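Appendix B. Chain record.
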Amino acid sequence: MKAAHPSLLHTQADFDRMAAKVAAKASPWIDSWNILIANSHASLGWNPNPQAIIYRGFDGTHTQNYMTLANDAAAAYACAVRWKVSGDTAYADKAVAIMNAWSSTLTDIGGTIDGFLASGLQGYQLANAAEILRNYSGWAAADFARFQTMMLTIFYKQNHDGLQASLAPLTVYSNWQLACMASMLAIGVLCDNPSFVDEAVNYFKSGSGNGAVAQTVNYIHAGQLGQTQEAGRDQGHNTLSVMLLTSFCEMAWNQGIDLYGYDNNRVLAAAEYVSRGNLTDPATATYYTMPFAPYANRTTYDAVFSTGGQGTHRAGWALIYHHYV
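Structure tokens predicted for this chain:
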């Protein structure tokens, strides 16, 4: 595993490139930058709302409050990126304040099995924000250590549980485990623990659940189109799985681990399949007809490519496009 930091979704070379393009006001980089700085999450006016316990999934008693964590994780990440590109330390200070608020308050993630989603989705976002800021002189060493402890004792613990067959069986959708894997890998880098990275990478290659690439991309059609586990569910979740899959591969790539190319570029086959299924054919102005192999597990049977949410756009396609193009 590489010792250089930052090295999750972004390396220092990435930030140097971003800063140069933005300074030059070059399109399309400046256009994306303008979208970022117009977003309220990237604002100095953002105020964190930390909770002692996060609930995702109604347990019959507690109100779900996971969106407080989701929004604050997004704000920490957006402000960290804004600092790295602009050099304005006020945004670094804002990101640090958000993360310190949570690390001094959060004690657990509860609710139902849905808690695995909060620990995964927000876990890998928070770890990325912290990785960007880990060498920032304005983040006190004791506060950074406390943040690492939170990630280890709360987020990683749930990420690990999310990959256990007894707790998260094969019937769990792929995005659940991919989120846990992304968080686990990110925490391993943030906390300089290669065993976490190995655990996540090994699960990708040979795990028993739907986060493993052979189950996530469960059928290869002619033309190297890789059918995905959530393709028959709906395209909102299906595109989420691909975004998590490519984010996972990008973070691994920046550790010197090539998972993009694993098993004859199986992840690329998934990206080609899902992107095609959510694009319109210019010849007909209708969505492409997609090949589909019937999919079943203990609780689900899908016979066709789902049109639910078809045309969903998610940020993240640039990762795999940049890797190959």
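Further analysis of this model is presented in Appendix C.
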